Amino acid sequence: MPDLEILIQSLGLVVIVAPSVLLCWLGIPSLLGRPLPESWVHRVVQTVIWTGLLAALAVLGLMLVSDQTHVMVVGRQWVHIPHYHFAFKLVFDRLSVPLVILTFLLCGTIGAFAARYLHRESGFNRFFVLYSVFLLGMTVASLAGTIETLFAGWELVGLSSAFLVAFYHERRGPVANGLHVWSVYRVSDAALLIASVVMHHLSGEGDFDKLIRGEGSWPFGSPTLSVSQATLAGLLLVVAAAGKSALIPFSGWLPRAMEGPTPSSAVFYGALSVHLGAFLMLRVSPLLDASPVTCAVIVVLGLASAAFGALANRVQTDIKSALSFASLTQVGLIFAEIGLGLRYIPLVHILGHACWRTLQFLRAPTVLHDFRQLENAVGGSLAARRQSWEQWIPENWRNWAYRFALERGELDQGLFNWFVNPVRELFIACDRYERLLLQGNPPPQKLGTEPWTRVLEETP
Amino acid sequence: MMNLPWLAFSVIIPLLMAPLVGRLEDSGRARIWTLAANTLALLTSVLAWFAHESNSDSVCSEGLPGDWLALDSFSAPLGPLAALVFLATTLVTLRTKIRRFSFAGSLVSEALTLGTLGCLEPWGIIAGLSLGVIPPWLELRRRQQSPRIFGLSMACCVSLLVLGQLLEDYEGVNRFQEWWAGIPLLLAVLIRCGAFPFHLWVSELFQQASFGTALLFVTPMLGAYACVRLVMPVSPDWVLRGIELGSTFTALYAAGLATVQTDARRFFCCLFLSHSALVFVGLETLTEIGLTGALCIWLSVGLSLTGFGLTLRAIESRRGRVMLDQFQGLYDHAPGLAIGYLLTGLACVGFPGTVGFVGTELLVDGVVEQQPISGIAVVLACTLNGIAILRSYLRVFTGSRHQTSVSLSLRKREQVAVLSLAVLILIGGVFPQPGITSRYRAAIKLLSQREPILSSPNRHEALPSQPVKQTN
Question: Which of A59, A294, A356, B303 lies 20 to 30 A from B149 at CA?
Answer without folding.
Answer: B303
